[in-house]
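Chain A, query sequence.
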Amino acid sequence: MISLPNMLKKLISPFSQASSQTRGIFLVVAFVMLTGNLALFGRIVENYPLTISNLPFILSLTLFFTIVTALFFLLICHGKATRWILAIYLIIVSQSAYYMDTFGVVVDVSMLDNIMQTNVQEFAGLLTVSLVVKTILLGIIPAWLVIKYFPKSVRGFAEILPRLRVLGILLLLLIVVVAPFSGGYASFIRQHKATRFYANPIYSTYSIVKYVNQQINVAKDVPLKHIALDAKKLASNGKPELMVMVVGETARADRFSLNGYRKETNPLLVQQGVVSLSNVSSCGTSTSVSVPCMFSALGRKAYDKETALNQQNALDVLAAHGVEVLWRDNNSDSKGVANRLTVEDFRTPKLNPMCEGECRDIGMLTGLEQYIEARKGKDILIVFHQMGNHGPEYYKRYPKEFEKFKPVCTTGELKDCSQEEIDNSYDNAILYTDYFLSKVIDFLKKYDDERATAMLYVSDHGESLGEHGIYLHSAPYMVAPKEQTHVPGIVWMGKNFDYKKEQLLPHKDDALSQDDLFCTLLVTFKLDTQMCEVKKGMLMQNSTLTK
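Chain A, predicted structure.
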């Protein structure tokens, strides 16, 4: 049986056997964490006051950022270049720390852009005694000491093998530090996103790389690639189309009572004669991936952000063939999907009259009558990008009168709530989506005699609510739990629409995905193209295309 002292000895052994250069890197890491991350630790304590209950998680966060910083330096520092890399970073850290500690700013991409455009006069205005003192004491002097006295590198495996063992131990420690607080980290990542921006120099390095990459991409003059060039608008004696597509946010299919959920989260939609597509999977596990992916023609497996943004998507193709497309956003933005289209921002009271601390999705219906009236005889597609169930503060996603399921979690710190409270607050937000979608259908019914009306609702991705110890979303797709990839899809069709409910019902449990959206939209608006040949089947039930 291995005793505790022997276990500790084995754990420490790789560190004691490491080269003097590796041990020197640890000393620099300790100095960086103690002098360059006061803003980071200040933000952590601000979000998690020093109480007995918070202390374990605070210690976990402290160890997490320290280990990550150590891993970073151990990975980038090798050979003779080590002393110079560390010296440069010590100066960068001192500069970043000064501005974070003094002004509360973070060194992000926009800040780097400001720095690159700063002229001599502006720099002179920022040059203060405290800046000079801090740069000398915490940057230049330590950098000079490192250059002058840092141990020389050891050649060959005498350096590499001990370094690899140390890296392995640090990775194991990282897992041990994070695992007991998975719920806390899920809330921390989403609720206190700004806090990790103060991780010095990890976030500043990330920002530098991102900034350089952006500048390289901006410098490229890439013409927009036109797709579906063979698309033809088929003649129809039917009425002009009026379709509303609702892009949901963070809604999972198994929380819709339409799909068999035990709580009645869809009391209004069940009365609207909708068809719930119960087996729809998402393109990704985050908005930034799923939204551009679902509108592109690439499909999940072939999706690449730059490729998608540099070629037309479904909305572009529709607009090029005479469909009036309007994007209304109550979320972050369209993620590049609507860059060439009319976009209206409903995140502020400027356009959205339904703002009560948070602007509600229902406000996106405002003023649509005038928009439609001005486009008589034309096909129209209106896209609503919901705030939906954006977490972790699910309780903020609905008005108080929709708090049907109680008790609720009234904080973004999911680790402070019971499973029942988390579930109830999330389900109440689904209940509000039910109300919003029902109102969208009621709106469309007003045009049911003069237009072919329809509503399609698809969430961008799902959400983990503590299953398997996982919260929120954005897990790598290949290991993402079903809760993050199984999304709701709901269809309502007016009396003049080319599809009938009876045609769709036999397919409601078919395996579908957001990959099907591109051709679904084109076929709905009677565009025929070879790109959609493989998607025929139920899509081709369109009465115009089958004539």
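The first helix runs from residue 4 to 17. Residues 117-122, 538-547 have pLDDT under 50 and may be disordered.
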